[in-house]
Structure formats: structure tokens, C-alpha cells
Amino acid sequence: MQIKEMERLKIRGRVVANQSMKELTSLRIGGQADLFVVPEDLEDLKTVISFCKERGVSFLVIGNGSKLLIRDEGFKGVVAKLGTSFTKIENEGEEITVGAGLDLSTLIDFVAGKGLWGLELLAGIPGTVGGAIARNASAFGQDLGQRVISVRALNNNNGNLTIHKEDILFGYRTSIFLGKRDWIITEVKLALSPGKKEDVLSRLREARDKKMRAQPISCPSAGCIFKNPASSSAGLLIQRAGCSGLRVGDAQVSLQHANFIINKGNARARDIIELIDMVREKVKMNSGITLEPELEII
Kind of pairing, strands 138-139 and 142-143? Predict the structure, then answer.
């Protein structure tokens, strides 16, 4: 994309040319995006969508980049991260309306502080609400989709959509949004359950502590790389296949949690991809099971 073209995008939010994606993904890996924008509000977002559509420019919306690997060559197009007006929370009793750009951890702390059950076991998942909805974030038998009433989204014609729970097709780490890349989640409505504040907070602390003990939080990662197959846990299969500690460049299968690949310093996207392929092959040979990645590679 030419600089002159970039200059024609006028929004109230931020516009940055040649943005390093290392700064925007939890793996701290990736080349540059032609343009990075932070739409401040819905009108900004519509302007960005129209700009990309008119010019045939590729468009990618990210949250905290926690399930995302951008290739070393970068992203030829516009990357957007939702701005301030997409981080609001409102509650009316047990019903919560929340912007898709809010950190999931902030939402979880908010509802726990209100004494509401239903999200506390998702503590420690580092994404935004929008990303957590798209991938139906889950932990310890609890998933976000169980609590959804409806989702508001914007399509590539700038049409506002309201999608109700039964039409979202929530499954294990998936939803209709993973197949609808031209739908941008903007707002979510949830129904939670009342409880005692101290009980909810206690369970939240337990879930966070369990995650912190089990996961390699000292190194950049993308969380779990593979979905758990029906018959076993991916981490256990990877460990049994002798992949713990396996390394390509600065990309390494974590010794603490085998379903994590960590960046030991200067890992490249190609290192991560090669390591993923090696792990899948070894697990297939050892167990006959083909692991399905949940990491999105752009």
C-alpha cells in the first residue's frame, strides 16, 4: 500500500504505517503490517472498512494477538484493534453488555466483583472479549458460549448485525465467527448467575493460581497451540511423543506445559511453523492422532 493511499484514511483513532506485529502479538513474532489502525468508535470502524473495500485492501481485526502468528513477511494490508469505545461494560442485574475490545480478564474481574458466576474459570485467558467469543474460550469445563445471549457485529457492507446464541454455532474452541472473517464482533450480551461475592472471588483466585502454576508465563507464547482431541489432552500426547523441550531456533516446546510453544528470545514465525509440523508428525507416529492447531497463522 502506498503512503499516499494511507494518508487518505481519516479517523479519530490512531493510524500507524509499517507497524511491527511483534508488538501486537503475545508470541512477540511477526513482520510489519502496512497500516495499523485503532478505530475509536463504530463510525471510525465503518470508515476503515469502507477504505479497505474500495481499494481491495486486505483487512484483519485483532484483539490481544494471543492466538495469532503473523508470518515473517508481515501483513500486506490494514490491521485494526478496537479502541476505547469498544471497551465499555454495562450491567443490569445478571445481564452484562460488554464491548468486544475489552480484555477478558477485566470482564472476569468486573463480574466476580458483582458476585456473578459463570466466567471465573476462564481466568488467565489473555485475549479480548471479541476473540474469546470467536474461539469460544474455555477452561475447566466452562466456556464463554454457555453465557452468551447475543452478539453484535459489523459486516463488510457496514451493516449492523445481531446474532443470537442459537445461530452462533458455538463448539469446542470454535463459532460461526471463525468462518465469517468479514464479520467484526463489536458487542456481546451475557447472562450470568447470582452468587456470593466472596465465593466467586475465591473460585476465581483458585482458577488463576492453577493456571499460573501449570503454564510457562515467563516467556512469550500463544497459549495452547493445539486443540484437545476427544480421547486425550494434547499436552499429554505431545509429552508422550517425546516432544517436551523440542526446539527450532528460539522456538521451543515448553518443558512446563507441552501444549505451549514459547519464544525464547528471537524466534521467527517460520521456526514456530516448523516446530508445529514436527510435533504433529511425532504425535501422529506415536499415537495415530492428528492434532489440530488452534493457533491462527496469517
Answer: antiparallel
